[in-house]
Amino acid sequence: MYEFTDRIIKKLNRVYLREFTRLKLMRFDELNVVKAVKDVYRKCVNAAKKRYLEIARHYYWIAFNEAKSGREIGNDDWINNDWLLDYLEESDPVTLYSFMPEVERKRQRLVEALAVTTKPREEIDKSLRFWAQQSQQYADNITDTAVLRGYSDAGVKRVRWITERDDRVCPICRERDLRVYDIDKVPPKPHWRCRCVVVPVKSEK
Hints:
Elements: H1 3-24, H2 33-67, H3 81-89, H4 99-116, H5 120-153, E1 158-162, H6 171-176, E2 180-182, E3 197-200
Antiparallel strand pairs: 1-2, 1-3
């Protein structure tokens, strides 16, 4: 299910690599380090926000059209900047933090590291890894959110949890495999990069 998300993440990773590489080529002093790092994170966040909206719209319609059973009419007007900003400010049960405050924390950490380190390139590479990991996890989270909303708008009441069924499935997910949940009571993913999916349960007549 995450093929489109993964394609978007690859595009975003190219943007992130370009911005953090540009940072590595700079000479830092107390006057420019704060501005330079802030500029990199601003560009990366803006790129991520734009792509997150694409992901949400894509998966909303995939899920809605898959589950639509009658005359239901989908509506993706909720997928807008206001929704995304609210979403990114909420505490997330998978990451255990909120996206935007964590961006600020990561940005400030890099500023502080560059002010004292003798190996600035290593610190920048480390920050790039942390940022890319966060961005990827939220792309997955938004995928899951849009799918559930699409199913709900199509009239789905219950969904079934499906794992990848390979040797990488964690014990929690393995226990949830094939379990049915009310659509408004689906438990959060238990760990980062969980690729379990939920599928509609057809109503019994």
